[in-house]
């Protein structure tokens, strides 16, 4: 009987905990979800990011959020970083978090107005990064033992945001000495009092001192949980769980979110059918059948993503210009920034260039020659237009064709559209009450259409794009 009870308990645990993946751009991203039994609908979501060289399962074990989540009835997601780290300067992992929110709203009817972001160590650094990026989607932030090593910044256009920061005073990885100067940036931004209300021996625990700056604008607070003689780990001592304190703080806050999210939709404006037409103009390189386009991120890498991700002004650029090459009958493709100026880095122009075929990507690095990043003529392309198909890109350095953001390594051509683009909106959205949409289907001009009688094309339903072929 005892054995049966153990097996039953293990089965319930497996039902509550699941490892899953989601497609974000061209990457499959993994995550672990903890979902309490009898969750109900319109419940909150906590996203908890691991530290560098750690993983989602390790973060779950350190945070010990299960009993808190079971009582309060909220979903917790533990995302998996690429190479056990986080993008703390660009949008790769910001897009991952946004995709996770949409996925949780769809799967578990999560309340999009009550989404909270936390992270440990590098995950805490990423949490600070997200404050300037997605404060319109995250109601409160809870970094643990992590902050921007170069110092926090607060975008003046960001709303006042609630923050609870937890940190050990003997942390020998991310020093406690610099916590205050990072918090001061947000204390000032939020319009909070500069003098904190201090509670020593918080909840009867001699090692915890709780500092509260607030209320500030819109009623937000900034809180520091100072853990005396604690190092670089998540503290759960004397009955005070860090996850419980994060939940108690964050659960007081919500943010108005229009859902489904209205995103700019990109339409093709003018398609070019020859290189002469494209000369002197900025154009996107897209595959209309796949709904994907090339763009640059992180000031160096080429990515091949869905239009909604590719044509973001947060990217390094998503248009290109033809530039004459010293190699006969070949071209350079100069990256253009979102405001249509010539992209450069380190004082040098940025071109689309391939690694060798055994490499892992294409680059947009700033180069002052035509030899490419790693191989001679890696930035030089033979471009051919085939009527009814589009343009092919053959790299002079590898002698092979470009298909995606990996090196030009394919024997056969793949065809792309060179085109100017136009952003349009017009998708009907739900007012900021976080009410779910009615499941209607819209075309890319925002017109409601009959979802049961669709012609081939791209449509939007429940805030998501889908293709009918």
Descriptive report:
This protein has helices spanning 2-16, 56-63, 66-72, 92-108, 122-131, 179-189, 242-250, 275-278, 307-310; strands spanning 17-24, 27-34, 45-49, 75-79, 115-120, 140-144, 163-168, 197-199, 208-213, 222-227, 236-237, 240-241, 265-271, 284-287, 292-297, 301-306, 319-324, 331-336, 344-345, 348-349, 353-354, 362-363, 381-386, 390-395, 417-424, 441-442, 448-449, 457-461, 464-468. It has 469 residues and is α+β, with helices and mostly antiparallel strands. Strands 1-2-4-3-5-6-7-10-9-8 form a ten-stranded mixed β-sheet, sandwiched between helices.
In short:
This protein is α+β, with helices and mostly antiparallel strands and 469 residues long.
Distance between the termini: 56 Å
Number of helices: 9
- Sheet with the most strands, sense and barrel status: 10 strands, mixed
Helical amount among residues, as a percent range? 10-25%
What's the mean pLDDT score?
87
- What is the total tally of β strands? 29
Sequence stretches where pLDDT stays below 50 over 5 or more residues: 4-15, 426-437
Oligomer class = single chain
User: Going across the major beta sheet, what is the strand order?
Assistant: 1-2-4-3-5-6-7-10-9-8
């Amino acid at each position: 009987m005892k054995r049966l009870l153990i097996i039953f308990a293990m089965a319930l645990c497996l039902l509550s905990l699941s490892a899953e993946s989601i497609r974000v751009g061209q990457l499959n991203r993994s995550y672990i979800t903890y979902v309490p039994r009898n969750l109900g609908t319109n419940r909150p979501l906590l996203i908890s990011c691991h530290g560098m060289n750690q993983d989602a399962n390790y973060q779950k074990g350190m945070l010990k959020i299960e009993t808190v989540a079971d009582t309060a009835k909220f979903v917790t997601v533990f995302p998996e970083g690429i190479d056990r780290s986080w993008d703390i300067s660009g949008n790769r992992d910001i897009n991952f978090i946004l995709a996770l929110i949409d996925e949780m709203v769809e799967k578990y009817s999560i309340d999009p107005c009550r989404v909270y972001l936390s992270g440990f160590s590098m995950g805490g650094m990423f949490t600070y990064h997200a404050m300037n990026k997605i404060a319109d989607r995250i109601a409160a932030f809870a970094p643990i033992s992590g902050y921007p090593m170069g110092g926090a910044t607060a975008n003046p256009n960001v709303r006042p945001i609630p923050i609870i920061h937890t940190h050990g005073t003997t942390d020998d990885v991310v020093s406690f000495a610099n916590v205050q100067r990072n918090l001061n940036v947000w204390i000032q931004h939020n319009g909070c009092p500069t003098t904190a209300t201090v509670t020593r021996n918080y909840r009867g625990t001699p090692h915890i001192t709780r500092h509260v700056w607030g209320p500030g604008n819109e009623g937000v607070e900034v809180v520091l949980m100072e853990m005396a003689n604690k190092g670089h780990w998540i503290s759960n001592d004397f009955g005070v769980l860090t996850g419980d304190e994060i939940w108690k703080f964050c659960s007081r806050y919500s943010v108005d979110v229009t859902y489904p999210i209205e995103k700019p939709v990109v339409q093709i404006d003018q398609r070019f059918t020859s290189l002469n037409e494209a000369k002197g103009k900025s154009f996107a390189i897209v595959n209309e059948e796949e709904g994907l386009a090339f763009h640059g991120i992180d000031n160096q890498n080429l990515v091949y993503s869905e239009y909604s991700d590719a044509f973001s002004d947060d990217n390094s650029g998503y248009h290109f210009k033809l530039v004459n090459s010293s190699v006969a009958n070949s071209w350079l493709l100069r990256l253009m920034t979102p405001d249509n100026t010539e992209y450069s880095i380190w004082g040098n122009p940025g071109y689309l260039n391939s690694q060798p075929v055994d490499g892992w990507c294409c680059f947009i690095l700033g180069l002052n020659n035509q030899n490419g990043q790693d191989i001679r003529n890696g930035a030089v392309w033979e471009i051919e237009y085939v009527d009814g198909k589009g343009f092919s890109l053959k790299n002079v350095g590898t002698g092979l064709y470009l298909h995606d953001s990996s090196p030009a390594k394919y024997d056969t051509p793949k065809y792309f559209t060179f085109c100017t683009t136009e952003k349009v909106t017009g998708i009907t959205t739900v007012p900021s009450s976080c009410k779910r949409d009615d499941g209607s289907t819209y075309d890319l001009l925002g017109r409601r259409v009959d979802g049961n009688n669709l012609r081939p094309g791209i449509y939007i339903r429940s805030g998501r794009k889908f293709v009918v072929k």
